[in-house]
What does this fold into?
Amino acid sequence: MSQNIFDTLKVDAENAAYRVAANKSSEILKNSLVSLIDKKVDSESAKAFAAALDTDFGLAFINMLMGVVLNYAPGLNNHKNAQRLAQEFRINGMATAGNAVLDEVFSQLLPGVMQVVQTLPKENVRIEQLSDKTSVDDLEENNKNLINVKVK
It folds into this structure.
């Protein structure tokens, strides 16, 4: 399967076009929905829904919803381009949700990991290559406060 660079770039450009279309249209839809709810609806629950939409998880939800709607919408459910776009919406939704989950996990775990690392004793480490004439005992006697990793 030997392709030249131009064939590869053509395929990649087509994939990128679908991805950009899905990303931008879901952002526009999210921003429009949030703005519409904020301006036109007085209900506290609707405002809470708008606030939830205005997060990464909200964007992931919109992407997944768009991907499902395009799959089953009459007239579009058999359209090749609409189905390809629906797939990009779903992939984008999963990726957005995955990134948001990892951001949350790391924001919770990283401070704890850093705290543990900071409690570890600080020690100097020196890596030395031993010659055939140098004994390990000689090195240990001269460098009692260092941790030595000896490589032969």
Q: What stands out?
A: The two ends are 47 Å apart (CA to CA). DSSP finds five helices and two strands in the chain. Residues 80-119 form the longest helix (40 residues).
